[in-house]
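Second attempt. The first submission of GtrA family protein had a stray character pasted in from the spreadsheet, which I only caught after the job came back as garbage. Lesson logged: always re-copy from the clean sequence file. Corrected sequence (166 aa) follows.
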Amino acid sequence: MSATPSVLARLRGTVNVLYREMIKFGVVGAVAFVIDIGLFNLLRRTVLQGPGTGVLSNAVISTIISAAVATVVAWVGNRMWTFRHRRNRPVAHEALLFALTNGVALLLQALCVGITNQFTAGETGWVAENLAKMIGIALGTLFRFYAYRKFVFSQEPLEDTSPLSD
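This time the job returned cleanly.
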């Protein structure tokens, strides 16, 4: 009978860690989201106005730049706070996996914006561009959370005692 509390305690601990990671990931993601959307719209309304040419339209270029800046913010936040209790690789290896993961997420965003731009012959409105970007961000976020836990910050968590203080 003594095994039951141990199994329940381990399950509770696992759920607790997952819950805390999800909250922290959400906070870091919210900050990165504001930077991504804000910079995207700033670029689209200033230096990258208009449709641009070909596959790399100004909207797609804006997406790539804003997502890259947001990725740097997310790297720092996730490494230093969200998943800091999962360190298991040299920082360069972890950074490379993080960059590859975010490269896939960035491609999802660029595809959503690019497809929207192609179907509207570059005459996409502000709302359509932002909706396409947000759909891309949502798809990328789902992929990133899975990939960060599975590949980038994959080591089992270290002992943690406080809910959100990491």
